[in-house]
Amino acid sequence: MTTGIKPVLSMREAVARYVPDGQELLIGGFAFSDPTALAHELIRQQRKRLFVMKTSGGVLVDQLVGAGCVERLLSCHVWNSVGPVAAHCFRRALEQRKPHPIQIEELSYGSFTMALFAGACDLPFMPTTPVQGTGHFTQRTFMPQKFGVVENPFGGGPVCVVPPLKPALGFFHVHRVDQYGNAQLFGPSGEFRYAMAACKKLIVIAEELVDTEVIRERPEATVAPGFMVEAVVIEPWAAHPTDAYGYYYRDLPHHALYGEMTKTEEGFQRYVDEWIVATGNHAGFIAKLGKERIAELQIRKEGW
Amino acid sequence: MIVSATRFEQMFLTGARCIRDGAVLFVGFHWPMLIARIARRLHAPNIVIVYENGIVEDRLTPILPTSPCDLVSAEQATTCAGSLETLFMWLAAGRVEMTLVEAAIVDRYGNINTTAVGPYLQPKVRLPGSGGGTELSSLGRDLLLVSASANQRSYPASVDYITSPGYLGGGVERERLGYKAGRGPKALVNPLGIFRFDDNGEMYAAELHAGVSADEVRATFGWPIKVQPGFKVLPEPTAHELTIIREELAHAKKRYYLMPEG
Description:
The structure holds 2 protein chains of 2 kinds. By secondary structure, chain A is α/β, with parallel strands linked by helices. Chain A has a single domain (about 10-105, about 165-295), classed as Glutaconate Coenzyme A-transferase (3-Layer(aba) Sandwich).
């Protein structure tokens, strides 16, 4: 963590520099502000054996699992939220071990939030939702200490606690950033603030690079001050097909297309070939979507 | 001409009628969102809805969100906060008065499985997982479960995996394990009617939709479910209510919601 001007990288450079095979990384977003452009680049560069943490996995995690990038997954939910329809690759991996088996560990969203909060604050643990008796409490895989129970020191019975979660690396979608890494997000923020602060190294993927004077107009929207940010990627429409508050809507037809194509392994491979590999980069992906679709989805009137 | 409602349509009215105007609600993914929306259009325009991602939705949005994270629900919202606020400051702290959660597979004690059918490590059917569902069931006041299924597969005697805790093994198990007193499921609404929970935390049929028999209820559940003797028959939708329900179902279809078959 440092002050000063931060490197502005292309997604290709960011993945090449920060995400070797086997990397542990938390990916931000909660079925909105999901940085799908990052997942696409991880697939293009054929990353393997990743340990992916993501609260709401969605289509993003489904793609990474289908493309064989993931060895371990910590999440609270993985599904295609439009329909809703199944996250088919996620299901194939867990039901049929295709394309290869993955290890999964699960938390509830509240427990995930609290574990990140503990990590962000460097606390030894945080009380969380009572979850004794549930499946996530008893079923533990690669994080055998994901929950504990302590006696309330002030009286009043057992309390469920979670340990601090401190991901080695985090990638988060934000709306805008300046050259110092001051990152701003508008609209709801889920667990993003605590999740960003929990990561040992933080990279933000912004829709646009703006002057610091623009950041100063809305300081309350800064979710990560520059000193928390390691590097910056500028990638317009990075969260498509999920939504970016005030910038663009969720792309329902694309979610439906993805759901339909990924029903079979062959269909998923076709999606990867056509939409991820052949497009070359995210600008190519957006060009393939077409001007008409982009115009339908765009909320913000002025371009960025 | 009198057109009668399907049981699926009837479910939305029955669910909506459980909602009091002016209440603060926590609404989970899928059909609960449509139930709350229909309530808002019928008799409860002043409800305030909290979604897990931080959105407070206090009015009828022009467009139906496809999920709580579809940000059309945040357009002109009064508050956009985060999950620490929604799940802990508002839900756990008791500021939310009523909670609606979908219960795709639910057992005798109101435990919900949205994770895995069959062994966890080798599931026959893998489902999405918890999301905020665990919190809604663990922490939510006046918890209403919603299921659009009238299929026995959806109502086993006990679920393979408890994603969202009901009364666990029944009795006072929740309190013993440190759950807050007075929380836990209060009712389930499905195409057959309303089911409530007795003092031991066991689900029973309380009020049924027109034409639903006690035998049909017994055949739908995977345990010998009790049916309230002399149960009340729930009122059918009026023409106006049915119009609203059908408008919203048509709206949902346009927004890519998958409709149940038949």
